[in-house]
Amino acid sequence: MLYILLAILIFGVLIMTHELGHFLTAKLCGVRVNEFSIFMGPVLWKKTVGETTYSLRCIPIGGFCAMEGEDEESTDPRAFTSAKAWKRILILVAGAAMNFLTGLLVLVIMYSTVAGFSTAKIVDFYPDCPLQSEQGLQVGDELYKIDGHRIYLYSDVSMFLSRNSTGVYDLTVRRDGRLVELEDFPMEKRAYEEDGQTVYRYGLYFGYEDKTVGTVLKNAWYSSLDFVRMVWMSLSDLVRGMVSVKDVSGPVGIVSVIAETGESSETAAIAALNIAYLAAFIAVNLAVMNLLPIPALDGGRVFLLAVTWVLEKLLRRKINPKYEGYIHAAGMILLLAILALVTVKDVWSLFAG
Asked: Which residue in 97, 138, 172, 279 could disulfide with 144, CB within 3.0 to 4.6 Å?
């Protein structure tokens, strides 16, 4: 139960930071904010300070920053639609930016507690490893790309090697300060003896770097970029049918994963680190997903804002924002329907499991 409450708290904080990004940027840009709400549904608590009502609602999903004239026509000179286009785009993107920065900050704090980091630099080879040669890999090589994918972290090595089932790779390594291409390079796991047991490895020993301010910031930044790429890869795999819709999880499924992660951790300290890592991933995931060009999402609003701006220049007249509001309302209904289906699937999986 403790981890479930913690998971709900994580969602609440991420929603708050997202909407806070919209709120603060709107205020800085001089746009009137009518209401700033955490969660959705009927109001549990509200208070009006100045021109803005601050509220807490009862359904622990979502939240909003309601700006004047956001989805309807308004004559208020401080309405969202009266602001310059660059200001509106800045306000819309600010929520996702805050989620990304939140994820990055969590990673910096988390990585500040570790002793060091594994790297993608080869420091040695297993005995008789066939990958080591003048034409192949050498000690001191740092894996820079695998099949065109940038290697940010040590964990990227196994991920991209596993995504290629042919056993032949296009490698780029950094060697003595320059990039060296190894095209159509065969790499297969072989049997090696390790501590009296037979293990299957590629035969590479990778390096390690101690914790410093620089390595903490570098690894936190690269992990954030890795999260962004993982979201895009997951969406691509879903579109191409490499993963099933059944693998998609909503808030209930994510809460379940967080709770399971906490309960399966050996100690409370390890649980805290594992959950912090998940929280950072969810934060970056929300940032990327919110910028998709889908109506009702921030990315959809930016896209329609650009389309509206072009149409107004061509037609030489202002388009009533209510039409954009209709599109976003339809998009919201569709998203809520998808969320409901995913939630039912997650709940069914909990009971069925």
From this structure: 172
